[in-house]
Amino acid sequence: MASRAQNIQDNFEPRPDPQSLTSNPDASQNSSSGVDYEPHPESSIKVSPEREKIVKSITSLYSGSASKEDMQVYAEEAVYDDPWSYCDTRYKIAGQWYGIPTAMASSKTLATEIVSNTDTQLAFKMTQEYTPRLAHFSKPVNSLVTLTLDDQGKVKYHKDMWNQKDYSHEGLGKLMKTLNGDHLTKVTRPPKDL
Asked: What is the pLDDT of residues 151-192, one digit of tens each?
């Protein structure tokens, strides 16, 4: 019998094509892999106010808001998937977001560009500038964020890709990501009622 997380992954995991969503018509502006994750806000697709609110909540979380209100953008049973973590409930996802103010002196969303908007998915390029608490240097990171939404308009699957490769859900990498997702809440202590 498949686990709840496996069911969510099987039914909601986005499989974006980074080249088609992000490549720049001027090939010299693309990375060697053919992608351009740098956002160009002036090229952003217009979306409904409800979808704008989703993007605002997600970017607020990336910027360290860790608020209950912003967390409500997620379905109670949702998956967050990035290079470091795999979380399979809203509470575990909150563990990631509540950790940003602990680990980072600052985290700022510098720019976004919505590149896709369908009935069930929303994708945007984002530049996030992280300043680690211990290192005190700023590092901008460009990524492609793809959100799959359920029929209530809640985020059911959140994928944050830092390069053109999709993530493996097997082996040691998956084990490390899952351990991080399962145990970070013990350190970051998000509210239990999320």
From this structure: 999 999 999 988 655 556 566 666 676 666 676 777 778 888
- The alpha carbon of residue 23 and the mean position of all alpha carbons in its chain are separated, in whole angstroms, by 20
Q: Tell me the angle at which helices 49-62 and 90-103 cross, rounded to the nearest 10 degrees.
A: 50
CB 14 within 8 A of CB 159: yes
Close Cβ partners of 145 (under 8 Å, ≥ 6 residues apart)? 58, 123, 124, 125, 126, 158, 159, 160, 161
Task: Yes or no: say if 39 and 111 are a contact pair by the CB < 8 Å rule.
Answer: yes
Are the beta carbons of 84 and 159 closer than 8 angstroms? no
Taking alpha carbons only, the member of 127, 102, 122 closest to residue 112 is 127
**pTM score above 0.70:** yes
Nearest to 94 by CA among 157, 185, 176: 185
Stated length of the chain: 194
| 123 close to 146: Cβ distance less than 8 angstroms | yes
